[in-house]
Amino acid sequence: MNKQQKSAELQVLTEALKSGTFIYLTDATGLSANDTNRLRRQLFENGVSMRVAKNTLISLAMEASGKDFGTLRTHALSGATAVLISENMKAPAVTLKKFRDKGDKPKLKGAYIDSGIFLGDDQLTTLTELKSREDLIGEVIGLLQSPARNVISALQSGGSKLAGVVKTLSER
Predict the structure, then answer these.
(1) Fewer CB near the terminus (10 Å): N or C of the chain?
(2) Residue 80: count of CB within 10 angstroms of its CB
(3) Given a cut of 80, is residue 83 above it in pLDDT?
């Protein structure tokens, strides 16, 4: 790869990291060509882009992106690295976990989720269980509506009971 190609790759990677909200770093070393293609296909079907690049380029792109990747830059960039970028927080983690049903690769090196850093392969299960912002807002709204629903329900059921009691008394 000559300097122009490296510069072009760096620009593409920097833009991808700038625009990407959810970034995962994985190590797919040891996967066969067929398995790698199958992984890429599954990621693509779930809206995840995958780029393989040298660690130095990834580090430079992280620095140029303006985001604070913190320990992800220092701890996760060793060996072969593939960058997974998605607009859906859980899509890369769920796809990796599903793909790994048949083996233990690819390994998760780390993830950047809304400025949160997750390091290590043991975080994959945690990442699949994270709730999205929309899910959390829905739960809060449901919790806020619950007392009001209970009061309205009690008033409505109490009204019919009261009407039944009055009707029974009037018939006697």
Answers:
(1) C
(2) 15
(3) yes
**Cα separation values, 38 from 11, 15, 42, 89, 100, Å:** 27, 26, 6, 21, 12
- Please give the Cα distance from 44 to 23 (Å, whole number): 15
How far, CA to CA in Å, does 106 sit from each of 62, 112, 119, 142, 169? 22, 17, 15, 38, 75
Give residue limits of the domains in the chain: 3-130, 131-172
Distance CA 66, CA 18 (A): 7
What does the pLDDT average to over 104-115? Answer: 85
Q: What is the DSSP letter of 114?
A: T
The runs of H, that is alpha helices, within the chain are: 3-19, 33-45, 55-65, 71-75, 91-99, 124-129, 133-171
CATH of domain 3-130: 3.30.70.1730
Model confidence pTM above 0.85: no
User: Which of 121, 95, 99 minimizes the C-alpha distance to 110?
Assistant: 121
